[in-house]
Protein: non-specific serine/threonine protein kinase
Amino acid sequence: MPGEIGKLVHLKVLNLSTNNFASPPPDALLKCNVLETLLMKENSITGQLPLWIGQLVTLRTLDLSQNKLWGGLPLEYGNLLNLVNMYLWENELSGFLPSEWNGLVNLEILQMGHNYLTGNIPNWLSELPKARDVVFSRNQFYGPASNLTKLIVNGNFTSAISRWLFDCNYLEGDWPTFNVPTVQVKYFSNCWNNETDGCATIGCNQNATQDTPSNCSRIYNCPNFFEERRVSQFIECSPCPPSQFITDGTRCVCGRDRVDKVSKTPVEALIGGVVGGIVVIIFAAILIILICRRKPALKYQQFGRKYEGIGDPWTVPKDLDRFTLQELERATNNFSEEYFIGEGGFGKVYRGVLPDGKVVAIKCASNEGAQGQTEFRNELALLSRLHHRHLCALEGFCDEDGLQLLVYEFMVNGDLHQNLFGKSSLNAAQRFEVAVGIARGLDYLHSFANPPVIHRDIKPSNVLLDEYNVAKLADFGISKATPELHTHISTRPVGTIGYLDPDYFRTNQLTIASDVFAFGIVILELVTGQRVFDTSRLNGINLTDWVIPKFKEGGIHAIIDPRLSETNYDATLFTNLTEVGLKCSKIDRNDRPTMKEVLTILEPYASRALKENSSSLNPKWSTEYFKNKSLFEDSRQFAPNSMNGKPYNSGESSINSHDTNCFSTEASEDLAALKAGFDFEAVFREIL
Structure:
């Protein structure tokens, strides 16, 4: 969008929806002093939400929905006191809801669904006196569902409220019994938390109408024979177990006490039954004819349908595309060397170009990396359910003729290892964003994946960077199906020396705390620019042994990457980031925080870490949050509301990822350095 648009100083409404803009609107719009409506939905806008929009004090409607915006929610938007409608749904926004937004007293519509927002449901939502349409569906909110009671019962909601949606989140516990203030509340629900077996449905009086305010008090307990197909009429998320639900008083999602049934006469029922039976018979006959005409030797079926493999029939996960070997051969010029990227534990990796021009990365399982058919299918089923901005997305697969190939999105900027230790390096702001991105991805695997996933091999070469340097975790999944998965015990080597949990050598046990340890080491690498092992370091071959005394004696300036010391970096921020890394890399796993607790410390920075087109961190804000905070205090200080105050449980996860190295060209570099410098037993002794 040209900057000249700022010359339209009398512009009140700007509607550029349903176009193909790729960049956010320019700050030249600040010159439009009377702008009231800014609509740019359904474009291809990438990047973070512009902070300067918070200065458009005359703005009444903001719609940036259905784009590709990412990052945190700007605190500055709390200055939009005249804002009535805000639409930011269907983007890739993450982080907490800023408490600074509690002053949006004129806000009526707040639609933030289909993002990656997280944290507890803030109490300030009940302080929006004019809110009538509040939608936070399909996010990652967590915490006790009882918090909603306070919002509903004690909130200042008016009779104008029409929707209050929190479906498809991860709220815990049973929904409490309470009265909904008005029958116009359509529903709110929690359908992605699989911990609840039943649901409590609260409906209004059958005689109430949409125009008659009334308190809802009837409670229905869902029986075991709950009909999921009825839920699908109201909630659009899958899988969606029956949990808690509130209706508008005219329908009930439970199997009994339905109030929308219409009785039919016997004649009507008979006619309906006969007609329905004839239709079913005709449809079945047509289906049988079509099946018989199909070639029995047809090898490839349409995506998502059942096909006959080596074993039993299997349904391809609906979110994956099934490629033929011929398609992938064409995409890689018959897997030629010019398309070769690298090789990891799973096998060789190639860059491929699909017919539509999309570039992908194709992992080909070697004899050592290949799994049995059942294990491979299990991995596909799991990976197809894992979707997060900071996870490398699985696009599809190929299992023709016993081969096993995985097709991933291609990361233009390579991996963190290349960018951190190569000729060109990341600046301070980019390193912080990478740290937060890794933390978000791990928190998703540990807290929101069902069942939880242990990555097992967090290291710079398994952190990929897209064209915007957004960090994405690679090589997450499940290991071979063995009884070890049920005991959390692994008897085969996992991970990479230097990043491997020291407790593993003592217990042969992997937990989510093992990922936290590796994350801490990566943080120290980001801060110092040093490798985890370096034989040239006189005062500590191991990175933590080098960091701790120098950091204690000389502070952040003694360990900071020299390439950053020549630029504008925030010393206070990197001091505390170092403390996070040291806390996570504690020898005793019980002394380490969870990733959710780490995010509670780092997330407040996410929305301010980068200014628009800025190359460094803003030094104005970084000292505020960490003032008088020491991360070496009790780890429960990190997040008083997370884990409900319970001590950290190191054995709470049950699924591991295979130890592969996706898309990395530097996979064996650290290991080669080890072999050249010293023996493994010495390394183990130093770690332990």
